[in-house]
Amino acid sequence: MGRPPCCDKEGVNKGPWTPEEDVVLVSYVQEHGSGNWRAVPARTGLLRCSKSCRLRWTNYLRPGIRRGNFSDSEERLIVHLQALLGNRWAAIASYLPDRTDNDIKNFWNTHLKKKLLADAQRGGNALSSSSSSSSSSSPSPPAPALIKGQWERNLQTDIDLARRALRDALSVYGADAAAPAAVPLPPLWSPASSASAAYALSARNISSMLDGWAPAPATPIAAESASATSSEPTECSVSSACASNNNNKPVLGPSTSACENDATPVPPLSQIESWLLLDDSSELQLAHEDDNNLLDVALRDYAS
DNA sequence: AAACCCACCAACCGCGCGGTC
DNA sequence: GGACCGCGCGGTTGGTGGGTT
């Protein structure tokens, strides 16, 4: 039996979103928080399927995302991660919290793939060392037949490989790689490229509308009661759950799930580097001593 | 100025996974 | 245990704008 379509085609708009639709969606998420996308079309009156709403939010309207103009360091990080992880864009995007998986995927398909091909044809093989170990295809997931111990060892190997590759990627910062505190972060906002359309600007304006709104309360009920008592927009404080969650706690999982409403880009590289630069032995020790240790988090996330 | 080509990227589509009943 | 549902992910497509002829 075939899978039913995710949304009925009748009465559902497709194609580019209009600013008006964006405003409706943003207003809804502002009030109720992201999640329960199924309810969004019904509760907002948007003639869009839930999937389309979620995509529009996560890829475009969500605050804290940066668009266009990938820096060299980002580029190299993506190349290394792609070599390690394959086309797992969400996983790669988790290392670039202010980039969406869709953006990275597009950047890869339109720029990096061609660039690497051109490099390969020129005989330039700077990246082959990292890509050769895992080949260009996606890494094979843990085989079900693997016993737990084997699987965990494989996982540890994967993590070690990832660390080395990240170390390589981050070495684009030069000798400063040894001094994480001095590592410059990519610019938060680059000027719009020449290709930026007027609507992109308006969409950015919508995003800027979100500057200053706090993540919705955890429960829709709470949100509703809050909005019932006051129709005023919530006071901005990017604090609450998200800020505390990002409080120097490295996040390995997809950034969208880690903190979808976070309007404040976190400095991911410095966190990653502090992890990378841990000496292996001390790292193992820390993994047992500190539940917030990144490796420990990684292991738990991976295993769960 | 018009036609054509190409690059970019927003959005769609289908599938897989996890949770719930 | 299995069916159903909702969400997330990756691959792909189609519209648009810029560049070239």
Protein described:
- This protein is mostly helical.
- Helices cover 53% and strands 0% of the residues.
- The chain has 15 helices and no strands.
- It has helices at residues 19-32, 39-44, 50-61, 72-85, 89-93, 101-122, 128-132, 148-170, 198-209, 220-229, 240-245, 255-258, 268-276, 280-289, 294-303.
- It is elongated and about 55 Å long.
- The chain binds a DNA duplex (21 and 21 nucleotides) through residues 3, 5-6, 14-17, 35-38, 49-52, 54-56, 58-60, 87-90, 101-103, 105-107, 109-111, 194-195, 197, 254, 256-257.
Brief synopsis:
One of its GO terms (cellular component) is nucleus. This protein is mostly helical and 304 residues long.
Outline the secondary-structure elements:
Layout: H1 19-32, H2 39-44, H3 50-61, H4 72-85, H5 89-93, H6 101-122, H7 128-132, H8 148-170, H9 198-209, H10 220-229, H11 240-245, H12 255-258, H13 268-276, H14 280-289, H15 294-303
Helix pairs in contact: 1-9, 4-8, 8-13, 8-15
The protein binds a DNA duplex (21 and 21 nucleotides) through residues 3, 5-6, 14-17, 35-38, 49-52, 54-56, 58-60, 87-90, 101-103, 105-107, 109-111, 194-195, 197, 254, 256-257.
Pfam families: Myb_DNA-binding
Domain Myb-like: 9-61, 62-112
Domain HTH myb-type: 9-61, 62-116
Determine the strand fraction and express it as a percent band: under 5%
| Intertermini distance | 31 Å
Choose one word for the global shape.
elongated
How would you characterize the largest beta sheet? none
Structural class: mainly alpha
